[in-house]
């Protein structure tokens, strides 16, 4: 799946990476390209819009992490947005695979159009439950319209090493379902997989039949099987089934083919139902749990960068930062502290990290980050502070012309540079005091980052 989308997104990131610092225009252009790539991958339009809006908003408002490049940060942001579209992300509970958390025998209802891979998937799930979960599994075909389907399930059951419910000619789907549950209870099966009949397209009779079986068997899982190759049709099928019958999860098959991947990205948003499993081949072993983060990783192919950015964001020394934040709030932040902060530049943009610890910081943080805090400037400032005496650092007011001259010479800078540093430090201290006052009043809460 995803190859074409991967290629396109990689192209976008390559272009970003050739820039040193990203401007708003760069981010806008990248968002446009991400939008095109998603549309070409057949992602539903509202989902595309949502993803792109999120990417842009977060890229513009992102807290700068100095030890990674802006392009790398954008990659991480796109990654997070994809994970969310796929049904994962922070604060969202995604349980991969199917749930058996119910009293035995647990019924699993398999739903889907003919040819979607429903019967094959029933066999795959049976095999996995028997071998991995050590469950006693009963397979039953409710497809009375096509005797071949019942025989196919029988063959698959044999291959999976599980039992299939004996075929009794002339029974209705409801009767077969009732018999399956009875046998399962009597013979202490853990799981019963009910493979309903498929149709070539959605019709009322099919919906009625599935709904009736569902009402009678009260399955713990109602899994809809859809073919990834059918793209947006798969999403619409899922929406129709979920509205009419209610599904607990979606199995997307043929992800081993060259489907464009849009269905996987649209599914959650359009249908509201989570993708739980992926079918990745004709063999019974070819069944995978669906992990939003791993799929996003597969799409971007940039797992290294994503974890790099995550780590860099964690590198900030929280204890140190909290100490500094407290000092700032009390207005005790001096040049010594400022120098300490400059030293941490190698680790990450600790200034913004510290600002993040202050309560209630909104737009001002962006102002500070935009205020030319680039690396060379910070290094020069570190050198200037380095050539001050401890007393001067704690008490910048004593810095008169002769001291400034000495300091500038020691740092290989000019007196102007020294003045600029002091001015900046003054401005910053004033801003800190203002911000902490605002913060204490609880205003400007929930700004950036
Ligand atoms: P049903 O009509 O929905 O029960 O579909 P079947 O289970 O009979 O599957 C139809 C065809 O699709 C069979 O030839 C399967 O081998 C094939 N198939 C099912 N799942 C997958 C999959 O994940 N990948 C591939 N490549 N083929 C699959």
Automatic annotation (TrEMBL):
What is the membrane topology here? Peripheral membrane protein
User: What does the UniProt entry say about where the protein is found?
Assistant: Cell inner membrane; Cytoplasm
Q: What is its EC number?
A: 3.6.5.4
What are the UniProt keywords, alphabetically? Cytoplasm, GTP-binding, Hydrolase, Nucleotide-binding, Ribonucleoprotein, RNA-binding, Signal recognition particle
**Pfam families per UniProt:** SRP54 (PF00448), SRP54_N (PF02881), SRP_SPB (PF02978)
- Where are the membrane-spanning stretches? none
Chief localisation class: membrane
Its UniProt entry gives the catalysed reaction(s) as: GTP + H2O = GDP + phosphate + H(+)
Q: Which Gene3D superfamilies match?
A: P-loop containing nucleotide triphosphate hydrolases, Signal recognition particle SRP54, nucleotide-binding domain, Signal recognition particle, SRP54 subunit, M-domain
Q: What residue stretches are annotated with the SRP54-type proteins GTP-binding domain?
A: 274-287
Matching entries from InterPro entries are given as: AAA+_ATPase, P-loop_NTPase, Signal_recog_part_SRP54_M_sf, Signal_recog_particl_SRP54_hlx, Signal_recog_particle_SRP54_M, SRP, SRP54, SRP54_GTPase_dom
SUPFAM superfamilies according to UniProt = P-loop containing nucleoside triphosphate hydrolases, Signal peptide-binding domain
Residues that bind GTP: 112-119, 195-199, 253-256
Q: Give the domain of life.
A: Bacteria
Q: How does it assemble?
A: Part of the signal recognition particle protein translocation system, which is composed of SRP and FtsY. SRP is a ribonucleoprotein composed of Ffh and a 4.5S RNA molecule.
What domain comment accompanies this record? Answer: Composed of three domains: the N-terminal N domain, which is responsible for interactions with the ribosome, the central G domain, which binds GTP, and the C-terminal M domain, which binds the RNA and the signal sequence of the RNC.
PANTHER family per UniProt: SIGNAL RECOGNITION PARTICLE 54K PROTEIN SRP54, SIGNAL RECOGNITION PARTICLE SUBUNIT SRP54
Function recorded in the entry: Involved in targeting and insertion of nascent membrane proteins into the cytoplasmic membrane. Binds to the hydrophobic signal sequence of the ribosome-nascent chain (RNC) as it emerges from the ribosomes. The SRP-RNC complex is then targeted to the cytoplasmic membrane where it interacts with the SRP receptor FtsY. Interaction with FtsY leads to the transfer of the RNC complex to the Sec translocase for insertion into the membrane, the hydrolysis of GTP by both Ffh and FtsY, and the dissociation of the SRP-FtsY complex into the individual components.
* UniProt family annotation: Belongs to the GTP-binding SRP family. SRP54 subfamily.
Could you tell me what this protein is called?
A: Signal recognition particle protein
Q: Which organism is it from?
A: Roseomonas haemaphysalidis
């Amino acid at each position: 799946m995803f190859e074409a989308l991967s290629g396109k997104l990689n192209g976008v990131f390559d272009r970003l990476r050739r820039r040193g610092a990203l401007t708003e225009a760069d981010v806008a252009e990248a968002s446009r390209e991400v939008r095109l790539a998603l549309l070409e991958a057949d992602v539903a339009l509202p989902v595309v819009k949502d993803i792109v809006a999120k990417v842009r908003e977060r890229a513009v408002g992102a807290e700068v992490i100095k030890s990674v490049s802006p392009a790398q940060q954008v990659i991480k942001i796109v990654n997070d947005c994809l994970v969310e579209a796929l049904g994962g992300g922070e604060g969202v509970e995604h349980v991969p695979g199917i749930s058996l958390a119910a009293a035995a025998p647990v019924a699993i209802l398999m739903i889907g159009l003919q040819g979607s891979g429903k019967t094959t998937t029933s066999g795959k799930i049976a095999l996995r439950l028997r071998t991995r979960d050590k469950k006693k599994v009963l397979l039953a075909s409710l497809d009375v319209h096509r005797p071949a389907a019942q025989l196919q399930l029988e063959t698959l059951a044999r291959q999976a090493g599980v039992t299939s419910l004996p075929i009794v000619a002339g029974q209705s789907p409801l009767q077969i379902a009732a018999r399956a549950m009875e046998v399962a209870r009597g013979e202490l099966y853990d799981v019963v997989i009910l493979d309903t009949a498929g149709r070539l397209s959605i019709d009322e009779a099919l919906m009625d039949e599935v709904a009736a079986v569902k009402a009678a068997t009260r399955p713990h899982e109602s899994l809809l099987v859809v073919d990834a190759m059918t793209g947006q049709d798969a999403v619409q099928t899922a929406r129709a089934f979920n509205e009419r019958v209610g599904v607990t999860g979606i199995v997307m098959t043929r992800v081993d083919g060259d489907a464009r991947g849009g269905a996987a990205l649209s599914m959650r948003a359009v249908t509201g139902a989570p993708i739980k499993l992926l079918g990745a081949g004709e063999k019974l072993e070819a069944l995978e749990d669906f992990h939003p983060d791993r799929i996003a990783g597969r799409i971007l192919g940039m797992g290294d960068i994503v974890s790099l950015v995550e780590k860099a964001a964690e590198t900030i020394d929280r204890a140190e930062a909290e100490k500094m934040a407290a000092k700032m709030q009390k207005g005790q932040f001096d040049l010594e502290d400022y120098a300490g902060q400059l030293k941490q530049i190698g680790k990450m943009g600790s200034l913004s990290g510290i600002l993040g610890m202050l309560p209630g910081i909104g737009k001002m943080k962006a102002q500070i980050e935009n205020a030319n805090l680039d690396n060379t400037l910070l290094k020069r400032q570190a050198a200037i502070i380095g050539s001050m005496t401890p007393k001067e650092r704690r008490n910048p007011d004593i810095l008169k012309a002769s001291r400034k001259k000495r300091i500038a010479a020691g740092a290989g800078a000019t007196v102007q540079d020294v003045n600029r540093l002091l001015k900046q430090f003054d401005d910053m201290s004033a801003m800190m005091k203002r911000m902490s006052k605002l913060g204490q009043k609880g205003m400007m809460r929930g700004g950036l980052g």
